[in-house]
Amino acid sequence: MFTVYTNQPYNSTLHLLKKCRNSRDLNQIHARILTSGLIKNSSLTSKIILNFASSSHQPLVEFSRYIFFSQQKTNCNPFLWNLIIKSFSHGVDPEQAILVFISMLSQGSVYPDTFSFSLVLKACSRLELIKEGLQIHCLILKGEFGSNVFLQNSLINLYLKCGCIEFARLMFDKMLKRDSVSWNLMIDGYVKNDMMENALEVFHRMPIEDQNLITWNSMISGYSKFEDGFEFAWGLFNKMPERDLVSWNSMINGCLKCGKLGIAGDLFNLMPERDSISWASMLDGYAKFGDIDKARNLFDQIPDSRRDTVTWNAMIDGYIHNGCSKEALELFHEMWKGSSLVPDQATLAMALSAIAELGYISEGASIHDYIERKGLDLNGKLGVAVIDMYSKCGSINNAMWVFEKLERKNVDHWNSMINGLAIHGLGDLAFDLLMEMERVSIKPDDITFIGVLNACAHSGMVKEGLICFELMRRVYGLSPKLQHYGCIVDLLGRAGFLKCARNFIEEMPIEPNDVIWRTLLSSCMKHENFGMGIEVADNLIDLDSRKPSSYVLLSNIYAGSGMWDDVNRVRMMMKDRNIRKVPGCSWIELDGNVHEFVIGDTSHPEFREIYSVLDKLCPFNS
């Protein structure tokens, strides 16, 4: 708490304001300013705005705004207006910057300058408001600021952010004078839109004296994304007059995207210095190439100064990508409890993903409780992860509770909930959610329809499933993908319409893969149509001879028909081709501990007692 004396000069007031860190301190000083009459001192109020409109402490920023707006009608200083506009355009509420700019125009006694226009264009760029941006462009031309390079660059940036690359190029071509920012903006715009020929054309026209690290890095990142552009990017990298961390990281990232893991590793070893992005890129590269052990070895080599949330997330994600959910969760706990780092939303979402795969619902509930206590936002990907975790861990009611509680739901939340209902065979509710999406104007995407079609298939809702397939094509204009065709095959097959499913496959406009044929084969097994099943299985083995499930299904079909010689023939075929069936796995969570079992398992410390109980329950197995 501060002691404020009425006879203090306003310099002391400013000094006290600088020490404020919360609303209570500010309210005390504000009250004294009002009662002492210092609020009428224009010199003091101007200095408050000048000193605190750009403060890193939000209460001070809000106080400076309050002071400004209380004297708005008499304030004719464009510099103060610009400070307030900037506090919004560069802050969390850029829309307010536009409203303050409109008030500035309405004032009549103060006219925006170059800086004012650049700030409001910044706000429009962040919000991607092309209509408002065009209106401001007209004001700039009317105010005879049209030839200002700084504003022209701001307009190019606006048009690029709004996806109007032709407008940006038109603006660029009309410029009488350009600086390095102009050239780099245009090159970067083309690179981000994968228009590399246009980017190269601008690059070749760019004066050498204007080319800088930003220029070279932009070109390298653009070309290195494509396999046929990698050699060109490599040539640019070697020609660079100087390199920075971005140059090295861009080239390494390009190598990894083009499958050149060895070259990426060589570059990584040659780097004069590395940041967390360098380490994370290599971790991600090794993980995506399936070498998770090498990724972990590299992770263990990261210096403590570089081991930040980005690198931990890369390693955790690598484990999940390689099906090592248990290791991912262990690493998450090591980060959370064994380091000074606080997991961010991406970390928590990945941990929830691992928990969903493992079925560790008690751990998932603990993380959800942590999220609630910290007041973290569930309206984004984190909310999707929580819904998905509860659904996959068998608690569909909790998933529904989280979903209903969300204030703002995007299509990903709806998809997660629909997929959860599909897992639990609640086709009616999944179909109702699709209808609800239409009511609240959320446009479904292809993932939505995969979820609804799966739900219909698991619930025997053939009519509703076929309606969804037609809605997808005719109403929402979405082209069905292989997964959607697979869902229809599953829908028809589960319901026993095997001939319809077979005809549907044969009439598909795209080539069916092994998953679609295996789906039909499973339906043949279920409905004991062994004739069609044998034919499908033979075709499936010809299509992909390395998948053990195809052989197992064919063997089961022969066994179901009593064709034991053929059963032995299939098993010998598997043996000759060195194909082994991956054993199934079951697990149960008891008192917070998860116990995992496979067939014939003797690894559990109490396996003898477990088998003894099983023998009593199922004496025919003895």
Automatic annotation (TrEMBL):
Keywords: Repeat. PPR repeats lie at residues 179-209, 212-247, 275-305, 308-342, 410-444. GO terms for cellular component: cytoplasm. One of its GO terms (biological process) is mRNA modification. InterPro entries: E2_motif, E_motif, PPR_At4g14850-like_plant, PPR_rpt, TPR-like_helical_dom_sf. One of its GO terms (molecular function) is RNA binding. NCBIfam families: PPR. This is Chlororespiratory reduction 4.
